[in-house]
Amino acid sequence: MRPPTEPVAAVWFDLYGTLVDLDPLVDACEAGAPGHGADVAEGWRARQVEASWLRTLMDRWAPFETVTREALAAAAADVGIDVATLDALDGAFERLPARQGAAECLRALRDLGVPTGILSNGSATMIERTSRGAGLRDLVDEVRSVDAVRRYKPDPAVYRLATEASGLEAARVGFVTANGWDAAGAAAFGFRVAWLRPARDVVVAAVVPAVGVPDPVVATWNELPRLFGLSH
Amino acid sequence: MRPPTEPVAAVWFDLYGTLVDLDPLVDACEAGAPGHGADVAEGWRARQVEASWLRTLMDRWAPFETVTREALAAAAADVGIDVATLDALDGAFERLPARQGAAECLRALRDLGVPTGILSNGSATMIERTSRGAGLRDLVDEVRSVDAVRRYKPDPAVYRLATEASGLEAARVGFVTANGWDAAGAAAFGFRVAWLRPARDVVVAAVVPAVGVPDPVVATWNELPRLFGLSH
């Protein structure tokens, strides 16, 4: 058993909901669909995630731009809205702000000399635009998109992109995500996972219990360096 | 292109929500958790399906009994109920009645000389108990459980169990399901799909649009023989 205080050799981050904040989608949806903003935003995200899982299970890849656009149309239909009224939401996932604490955490890891990366379901283009727009791109060393494997998380092939990029075994890698199903998948892959558990999971999914791994550790931004054995 | 009226050579059915009715779960949940029956029942099914997808994506198989038991605990926790009060629900998926029209449809197919089967996420034991309890077991010729491949729908390996059992290519097989994501997966696999679309999908999922196949045809029990080219 590796003692929990042994330092990780790299820290990778999920992007959507973790480094960047999805909450502004509510106001953006409200502007196009008055009275339905919260429902459309929540449905949009839930269907985006659901479609990414189903497409992977069916081996029917489409880029995340397509998945995201289709998910908005489905969410609009769910509440009886014409998706054409939501044209202004095109590209909204690329205009999300950094979550409070994210930039500070990345700077702290840089000061500690720890390599960092973003591992996201987004396309390479989406990740680039989103992370630049949020002012985070220059704070991370590596970026990996699912584009390279044409499968979505929590497929192990996606997590393997991070271990390959870092040249590390999974147990030496810290992984940070706010999405419960991503935390479960990363833990199943063998990462040391910090789950920035939101007050309420935007997606219906929480962690799959008992996937044969320790439960991901629930943590806050400030706790990450200590959790990953990088400070005391 | 195969003309739509060419007859299929076998018809396979999904079990939970399709041949058997999930609605009685609401009353069963209400008995154990007064005031929360509908929420617990809907959450139970949604988390059962979600966990089956995630476990398949993560390659962390567990039998459907385990998935179902864990899903009930998660659904109970979601509404703040102690799952111990729901002990009476153990095995509830094996005590579901046939949906109205299911037995008649199976008898009609038998009269037409068309081989039938059940292809379900349930374990072999669950399928046997459920289909016997609902009075349907003797009306179908074949039964296949995901146990054989240790993956859940909509993984193509599951649908392949039906083509192998029937000794037919997918395009000769009719597939009937009430679950939108199952209809999409079966269509992606190449089956001729009839989607017994419920008034409201119990699960959050609907069909993934544009998976590169024609949309599954929405149908009722009575329409199946004609839809599958078996009558006029």
Which tags fit this structure?
globular; 10% strand; alpha/beta; 232 residues; 2 domains; homodimer; six-stranded parallel β-sheet; DNA polymerase, domain 1; 8 helices; Rossmann fold; 39% helix
- Helical/strand content category of chain A: alpha/beta
Largest sheet of chain A: 6 strands, parallel
Helix content of chain A: 25-40%
Tally of separate domains of chain A: 2
Instruction: Kindly estimate the percentage of residues of chain A that lie in beta strands according to DSSP.
Output: 5-15%
Distance between the termini of chain A: 20 Å
Number of strands of chain A: 6
If you consult CATH, what is the topology of the largest domain in chain A? Rossmann fold
Do you know the CATH architecture of the largest domain in chain A?
3-Layer(aba) Sandwich
Strands side by side in the biggest sheet of chain A = 3-2-1-4-5-6
Oligomer: homodimer
Give helix and strand order of chain A, one letter per element, not per position: EHHHHEHEHEHEEH
Q: Would you identify the CATH H-level superfamily of the largest domain in chain A?
A: HAD superfamily/HAD-like
Shape of chain A: globular
CATH top level of the largest domain in chain A is Alpha Beta
Helix run count of chain A: 8
User: Can you tell me the residue ranges of chain A where pLDDT is under 50 for at least 5 consecutive residues?
Assistant: none
Which pair of chains forms the biggest interface, and how many residues does each contribute? A-B, 34 and 34 residues
Mean pLDDT of chain A, as a whole number?
Answer: 91
